[in-house]
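[job 4471] stage=fold_predict status=RUNNING
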Amino acid sequence: MNTSARLLRYERILDSSRTMAQLMYLLVSLFLSLGLPLVSALAFPGAVGFGSVATGGTTPFVVTSLADSGTGTFRDAVSVSGRNITFAVSGYINLASPVSLSSSITVNGQTAPSPGVGIMGREISASDKSNIIIRNFRMRQGNLDSDTGKSAFNMGHASNVILDHCSVEYGVWDSIDAVGAVNVTVSNSIIALPIGQQFGAHLETGPVTWYRNLWVSAHNRQPLTKANSQYINNVVYNYQAAYTVANTGGLFSHDIINNYFIAGPSTTSANDDYFQINTNQKAFASGNLLDSNKDGVLNGVAANTIGSAVVLTSPWNPTSQGLATLSAAAAYASVIATAGASPRDQVDAFVVSTVQSLGKTGAIITNQASTGLGNNGYGTL
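[job 4471] inference complete, writing structure tokens
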């Protein structure tokens, strides 16, 4: 190759390198401007949304005892950051006091022998922590907790948190409390039967992804989401108010796609499927259905008018449409079949059966014992 040819080749390589560098710069700038995480690996295969950046822990730790405290217990397991927690035991862990998680924790509830594992009686807190992954885990507070200011799961001011295939019931303050939380996903989970305030979830700051969850029998906050939000393929049953923003002064955008709202015996106004959403908010709404007639048949109609929010003609977040792979009807079937911790226990089976009545059964409760289930309403594991 002569000198002129070599110079031309090097010049082309340099031009190509500049082009790639410019492209990468533009992509990074785009991701940051849209609030998208720059993530090298998912929290786990199949993780979605803003919480998928959570790194969790890597140091193995096996829970070998259902006791409240001591060596080999869940409380012991989460007391040190960086742990990847598995379970050699199954059943309820009956807490006498709240449990605070450390940062960089992975809780692999799916590793527990059948019929699975969960906690009862007190709050699990990830407040002010980061990089939390919790999968296939049951969190059931209930009135065994005398502190009415606590929630079933609290992640106030936490960052990079994902709950997947969890079952969160009998929350006293909220089922999920997440004021000031950043980069959160709640996916494939059951959030049901809150007592006390009777609220589902309260999240502020964000961004947040609510994906393929089953929300059942709450007075309000399904969720209350004061954040840039993705709300995709959820099912809400027997609500008094469902998707809520509470006329906040904050300016947020909401992608609300292919969700199913189903009225139940406690629903006083089916049109409160979207509640307190004012002109400060921007919303893209598509494919949502509302079944308001309580006739035992799934026969919803289009429900895409989001209060007085400014209407967006396309999703605010470019990943939202790709997440919405199911229609609202298909989302109902999928969520009924797969949401929550596996295998399904008595509490989740009870919750799902009320939804399947499609308007005929269900109640907003103040005491888990009113479910009629054994073990003071907690059911048995």
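[job 4471] summary: The first strand starts at residue 59 and ends at 63.
[job 4471] exit 0
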